[in-house]
Structures are given as C-alpha cells and as structure tokens.
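Thread: "does anyone have the structure for this chain?"

Original post by V.I.:
We have the sequence but no experimental structure in hand. Need at least a predicted one for the grant figures.
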Amino acid sequence: MASMKHYHLSLRRMAKNYQSASRRVQPATLAATLLLGFYEVWNSDHDLWCKHMWGARAILKEISLAEMTRGILAVKRRRRQRLQELRNQQSYDAFDAVNGNVDNDDDLHEVDTGLLAKLSGQPVSYEEQRAANASFWDLPKRYTEHDVETYELVRDLFWWYCKMDVYQSVLGATRLL
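Reply from O.Q.:
Generated one for you, tokens below.
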C-alpha cells in the first residue's frame, strides 16, 4: 500500500516534469521514468511498463546524445593528448597532482561504432561534425567536468533503457521501441 502511494506521487511529479521543456530532458527525469518502469516489472504490469518505456524513449529523443558524445569524446581525446605530452616532458607528476588522475578516460575506446551500427541499422560515426539538434541541450563550446559527468549519467541511462527495451520486447513478444 505504501509503495502504491509513493508510486502515484511520483507519477504526478513526473507529469509536471514532463510538461516542462527544461525539466523533461534532465537526467533525473529520465532516471525516474526508467525506475517507474522497473517498478511495473515488479508489479507484473506489462502495459504500464511499456508506457514508461515510451516515455523514456520520448525523453531520449529530445536529448542530443550523439552530439554530446562527439563533444565529450573530443574533450577526452584532447585531455589524453595533453596528458601524453606532459608525460613525454617528464612533468606528469605535477600535472597529476593539480588535475587529478585523468587516466580513467578509458571510454575513449569503449564506443563500439560497429556494434551501434548493427543495432541501429544505420552508420554511426562520432568523428564527423553534424548540426546540433534543436533542443533544450544547448551544447557548450567548452565542456566542464559537470558536463562530462552529466553525459556519463545520460549515457548509462540510455544503455539501461536499451536493456529494458530488449527485456520488454522478449517478455511481451513485441518489437523493440
């Protein structure tokens, strides 16, 4: 009973967020939508699960994830080049002490564009420049650490959505959203 009360409270707040163009595309709104969908899995309500998945899909369509990926990967590429230059100059210790260990940018190589192309049925490249989608996300020219963290959060939520979409498709014998 308590869970249903909180579920309905969450639905009302999500409806408010979804009506706001700026709050709709926030990572918290996407995360809450996916979490509500997961709640429907526990309740064994496939129809409501699908509705939350459609909502998450709509949110993801408004977020310029491809453009964010291009920008963030470029930032990480420059960061890695700068780190390599400093290592070559034997001043890595000073750089590491000031800026923290940036060696954790392993996701530069984790974007498997071949896999993404197979999954989407479309060619995928993050190297070419494309016009940014018109959306709330005004892509900054200089990404901050907060932008990188936001991107990583949205990226992880996107993959959570993809996994839930596959599960929903298999269990409901329906097509992928």
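V.I.: this helps a lot. The mean pLDDT is 81.
O.Q.: and Residues 2-62 form one domain.
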